[in-house]
Design goal:
Blueprint (H helix, E strand, L loop, with lengths): L7 H23 L6 H8 L4 H14 L7 H25 L1 H10 L5 H14 L8 H17 L4 H19 L1 H4 L4 H14 L5 H17 L6 H22 L8 H13 L8 H25 L10 H22 L13
Helix pairs in contact: 1-2, 1-3, 1-13, 1-14, 1-15, 2-12, 3-7, 3-11, 3-13, 4-7, 7-11, 8-11, 12-13, 14-15
Amino acid sequence: MVEKRQYNGLDVLKVTMAVLVAARHMIQIFYPAESKWRLVVGAWLSNLAVPVFFITAGFFLFRKVDRENQKESKKAIIGYGIRIFKLYLLWSVIYLPIDYINWRNGQDKDVARAVIYYVQAFFFSSTTVQLWYLPALLAASVLVGAAYRRGVKIWQLVAPGAVLFGIGCICDNWYFNQQLPMRLQLLLNVYFRYFLTVRNGVFYGFFFVALGLWFAKTKIKIPFRAALAGAFGATGLMLYEVIRCSNTNMVFTSAPAAFFLFAAASEVRWKDRKLYPRLRAASEWIYLSHVYFFHLYGWAARWNPLPATKKGIAVSILAPMLLFAWFMAWVSEKKGFSWVKKLI
C-alpha cells in the first residue's frame, strides 16, 4: 500500500525552482552581460530546477505504478502521457501569439520555412523557451515506464540514464564538444540540424525520471541532515563547474545536487495546510506562464513608473507574475472554477 501523505517540502521546493527558472530567463533577456546574476541564477542555481522537476514527476508517477498490476500500471502511464501531451498542446496554442510576434519581428519572413521550423520545434524542442520540458517529460516517462513494466530493474534504468545524461552534457556545451574528434563534431552537427537539442526526454529526462522511480520504490531513507549536507556540497561543485566549464544548460553536478535536494525535501514533515497545495499549483503557473510577463513588461514600458534598472525590471516582471500565479492557484480552489486546474 502506497503511503498517502502530502509532501509539503516538495511543494516549497517546486515553487522555489519555478521562480529560479523565471528569473533565469528574465536575466538572460534583460540583464547586461557583466551582471553577476547571469552566473548566480542564470548559470548556477537555476540549473537545479529541471532535474528536480523530472525527479519529482517520476516519483509521483511511479508511486501509482505497480508491476504486479500490469493493467493498472499501463493505464497510469498512458493516462499520464496523454495529460502531459494535452498540456503541451494547450500551452503551445496559448503561446501562438508570441510565436507570431517573434516571426513578424524577425528577419526571415518566409512562411513555408517558418511552418517547417515550427513543426520541427514542436516535436523536438518547442518554440517557447520553457515548454520543451513537457515533451521531454512525456518521452522520458513513457520510456522509463514501458521498460519498468517489462521487468527491467531500476538500476538498469538509472545506469544507462546516467550515461545518456553525461553524453547530453558533453554535446550541449561547447567547452566539451569542441574537444571531440572532428568526425564526432560533424555527426553532432547533423544531429542538431534535425533534432535541435539534447535537452529532451532521452539525454536529459530519462535519467532523472528514472531517479524518481528509484525514490518511489526504494526502502532506503536518507536522513534529512545528510541529504541537506549532500545538496549543499554538490551545489557548491555546480558553481565550480559552471565557472570552469561555462556549462550553463546541462550541468554534470546538477545530478547529485538535485538528488540530495529532492531527498531532503521529501523528508520534510510539516503540518498539512492549504498553503502547500496552493504553492504546488502556483509553481506550475509560474513555470508555464512566465514568458508572457516578459512581453507584458515590454508592452507596458511607457507607462511603467519604475526605472529600467535590474531591480526595477525584476520587480516589474516577477511581482505581477507571482500575483497572477497565486491568484490562479487560489481561484482554482473555488466552487465553479475547478476547470482552471486543467490548465496546469
